[in-house]
């Protein structure tokens, strides 16, 4: 197996649990917390669960980023970023950048502390849930575009 094939395999193996985890949190965990907790305790309930998968999200996002950039460089795909037909390449990098920023910078540096000191935890949970829905929607559109583009249906 050549290094480009290995990178593609690692990329898919990373994206499945990463985006699958986002889908689980967004469509199962957060609605369950909403149904079983009063508004003022939902944020705390979410944080009790989150610590168990935050390290996993960081691992999968790192692996997706490393393997993705390896493929771009190794296959010399940089020119695709100058062509709007390859919009899904931009979407993958943008999605990865948003998650990397959130997981490696925003959450550990200030977001967790802000949530711990929240003056309105009900509103913060609602905002977090809405953000997860937006990110999941963006991830699904990106996946659709990337799979269609990688298999020659678009681009």
Describe the protein.
Helices cover 80% and strands 0% of the residues. With 155 residues, it is mainly α. It is elongated, with a radius of gyration of 17 Å. The protein starts with a helix and ends in a 5-residue tail after the last helix.
**Could you tell me the mean pLDDT?**
95
Rounded to the nearest angstrom, the radius of gyration is 17 Å
Question: What proportion of the residues form beta strands (DSSP E)?
Answer: under 5%
Pairing-aware structural class of the strands and helices?
A: mainly alpha
Could you give a quick summary of the protein structure above?
The protein is mostly helical. It has helices at 3-36, 42-50, 54-74, 87-116, 121-150.
Question: What order do the helices and strands come in, and which of them pair?
Answer:
Layout lengths: L2 H34 L5 H9 L3 H21 L12 H30 L4 H30 L5
Helix pairs in contact: 1-3, 1-5, 2-5, 3-4, 4-5
Give me some keywords for this one.
155 residues; 80% helix; mainly alpha
């Amino acid at each position: 197996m050549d290094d480009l094939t290995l990178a593609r395999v690692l990329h898919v193996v990373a994206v499945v649990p990463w985006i699958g985890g986002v889908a689980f949190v967004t469509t199962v965990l957060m609605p369950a917390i909403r149904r079983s907790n009063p508004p003022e305790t939902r944020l705390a309930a979410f944080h009790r669960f989150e610590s168990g998968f935050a390290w996993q999200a960081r691992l999968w996002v790192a692996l997706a980023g490393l393997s993705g950039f390896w493929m771009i460089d190794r296959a010399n795909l940089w020119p695709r970023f100058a062509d709007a037909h390859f919009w899904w390449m931009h979407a993958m990098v943008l999605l990865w950048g948003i998650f990397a920023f959130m997981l490696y910078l925003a959450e550990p540096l200030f977001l967790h502390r802000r949530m711990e000191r929240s003056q309105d935890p009900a509103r913060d949970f609602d905002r977090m849930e809405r953000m997860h829905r937006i990110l999941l929607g963006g991830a699904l559109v990106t996946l659709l575009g990337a799979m269609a583009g990688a298999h020659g249906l678009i681009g």
